[in-house]
Specification:
Elements (H helix, E strand, L loop, with lengths): L5 H4 L7 E13 L9 E10 L5 E6 L4 H15 L4 E4 L10 H11 L3 H10 L2 E4 L9 H18 L4 E2 H15 L5 E2 L9 E2 L3 H4 L21 H24 L17 E3 L12 E9 L5 E8 L2 E6 L3
Parallel strand pairs: 1-4, 1-6, 4-5
Antiparallel strand pairs: 1-2, 2-3, 7-8, 9-10, 10-11, 11-12
Helix pairs in contact: 5-6, 5-8, 6-8
Organism: Araneus ventricosus
Protein name: Integrase catalytic domain-containing protein
GO molecular function: nucleic acid binding
Length: 309
């Protein structure tokens, strides 16, 4: 594997070097329209090259004016970036008419878009043609967003406010993923997340009741949105935690867990965003001297758990 680009490894402000990608279209409805009439909407994903922070914006149409408005909202909330990276236009070409429209807007920006970028001093860089793997950073973000949004929302038609709420909460979920332990102190149960670079602390989500077992016909509209977010949390966390565990066939012995490692404790009756972090303080080896059970210390006490939990 080659070395990472300079923008990925150089210390910088959040979102100073940013990758952007589009996903969609999605269908939404408006309350003042007759039943059955839906409108298209798109999601623009911005991801920081250094901190991996994610920012999601809704785009109502694929025009230069709409994209400039999206950039203005992004800059107002996250600060102006100096470099903006995106896929080469050939990566957008496909059978989908919307993708061809997006291809034309990005590859050949009109005076509105090019004038705004030049006036703000933004350097927009494109990846090499037919090399989508160069944009794996934002492609992974789009995959995480679409994978769980489509499986939870499905064919449901949300209003603009409801879709905006779900999108913003998914942004918080993606920015709350643990990267590395903050310290090696065995008494410290905090992990570094992308949101630390934005607000300097974890996101403290409002504790809401578990709605998995309640039929949707008994839920109000905002409770349905809460249930969707809880389902997204469960599915995303399961996929993400599985990716952290290497399941490939082994040919050599690998290091097992060690005392002092920071771990996530899985709680079946608790929202994923509230799962506690703990430090391993005791090991219980089996007959083959492999560690499968550990003692974990958290802020609430001591637990004996299997390493898969």
């Amino acid at each position: 594997m080659g070395a990472l680009p300079r923008e990925r490894v150089t210390a910088n402000f959040p979102f100073n070097c940013t990758g952007v990608d589009f996903t969609g279209p999605f269908s939404i409805k408006y309350k003042n329209q007759r039943k059955g009439v839906c409108q298209k909407i798109y999601v623009s994903l911005f991801i920081c090259f250094v901190t991996k922070c994610v920012h999601l914006e809704l785009v109502t149409e694929l025009t230069s004016e709409a994209f400039v408005a999206t950039l203005k909202r992004f800059f107002s909330r996250r600060g102006k970036c100096s470099k903006l990276f995106s896929d080469n236009a050939t990566n957008f070409v496909g059978s989908n008419q919307e993708l061809r429209k997006l291809h034309g807007m990005v590859k050949n920006p009109d005076g509105v878009l090019s004038g705004y970028l030049s006036s703000e001093g933004i350097d927009w860089k494109f990846l090499p043609p037919r090399a989508p793997n160069f944009g794996g950073l934002w492609e992974a973000g789009v995959k995480s967003f679409k994978h769980h949004l489509k499986r939870v929302v499905g064919n449901s038609k949300l209003t603009f406010e409801e879709f905006l709420t779900v999108t913003t909460q998914i942004e918080g979920i993606l920015n709350s993923r643990p990267l590395v332990p903050l310290t090696t102190n065995i008494e410290d149960f905090n992990a570094l997340t992308p949101v630390h670079f934005l607000i300097g602390r974890p996101i403290n989500s409002i504790v809401e009741p578990n709605l998995f077992e309640i039929p949707e016909c008994r839920l109000k509209i905002w409770q349905k949105l809460t249930k969707m977010i809880q389902i997204i949390w469960r599915r995303w966390s399961n996929d993400y935690l599985c990716n952290l565990q290497q399941r490939g066939k082994w040919f050599f012995d690998k290091n097992n867990v060690r005392i002092g490692d920071l771990v996530i404790i899985k709680e079946d009756n608790m929202a994923v965003c509230n799962w506690p972090l703990g430090r391993i303080v005791e090991l219980f080896p089996g007959n083959d001297n492999k560690i499968r059970v550990v003692g974990v210390k958290t802020q609430k006490g001591f637990f004996k758990r299997h390493i898969s939990k």
